What we know:
The chain is an alpha/beta fold. 37% of the residues lie in helices and 23% in strands. The chain has two domains: 2-109 and 303-321, ornithine cyclodeaminase, domain 1; 114-301, 3-Layer(aba) Sandwich (Rossmann fold). Helix 2 crosses helix 3 and helix 3 packs across helix 4. The longest helix is centred in the C-terminal third of the chain and has 20 residues, at 302-321.
Amino acid sequence: MLVLSEDELRRAVAAADAEALKRVEDAFAALASGNARVPPPMALDVPERQGEVHIKSAHLADPPSMVVKIAAGFYRNPDLGLPTSSGLMILMSAETGAVQAVLLDNGYLTEVRTGLAGALAAKYAAPRQIETVGVIGVGSQARYQLRALQLVRKPQRVLVYGRRPDAAQAYAREMSEELGLDVSTRPNAELVVRECQLLITTTTARRPVVNEEWVHDGMHITAVGSDGPEKQELEPAILGRADHVICDLVSQAARLGELHRALEGGLVTTEDPVELGQLILLGKSVRTKDDELTVCDLTGVGVQDAAIAAYAVERAIATRQTT
């Protein structure tokens, strides 16, 4: 049995890895075509520590891969000088069920595959030409989303809002230096939304941080934060107004994501959204006109974990063989 450390996995898979993007893209296509099995995720909340643990799994038929992933997010950890995310992935044989590898990634691969899903949302739903990207939330996932986005779009500037101005300024400095982009902060979320063509929300909000009156025709929104029934980043009216709603998995988003709230309000039906994998199978953008409003609701699907884990093991073995 192979055991891989976080350091090994970070060396094996970059935050913006073009081949990893292709693997996750293929996994979504497999999900849409019926070549994957994905049971509902399990969630365990620890509210007294502002913590949550998610367990996700999937079986991909071709190439065969089976993964169980445990990911924890404890949002008071920074006060203790600890990272927010932790966890591991277990890669199992799709033929015998035997454990083949344990990936002690501490949430790194989850961060990467979530960022890559955001890039795919932009690839298949955002305008082709993006001058300004808006980011709401300045935690670790806000970094991975912006890194992965560079694989599919080349924005000129980035506008950022975070609840803590010092953290927002730190994010702006870090990402500007790392990516060579003009990254600047705004004092509120409204200014970010009104000025961007592509908006990415990466918060753990329980109430909307984006109001419907701020959004404008022609923009795309990728909402990443809502992966539980109590979470919400967008006013449900935004989904009701959108020309196209995209979900990573409709059945899951209907229970956990932004779609959940819009369904409760009777603003959309489960027949309205298109799944990301279906767009990938078609090989074309959902966007048909420049002035369309598009929204992608990402809740995180086990096929992403199966794809990134199998790829990471391949890369780690290759790296070990060359060192």
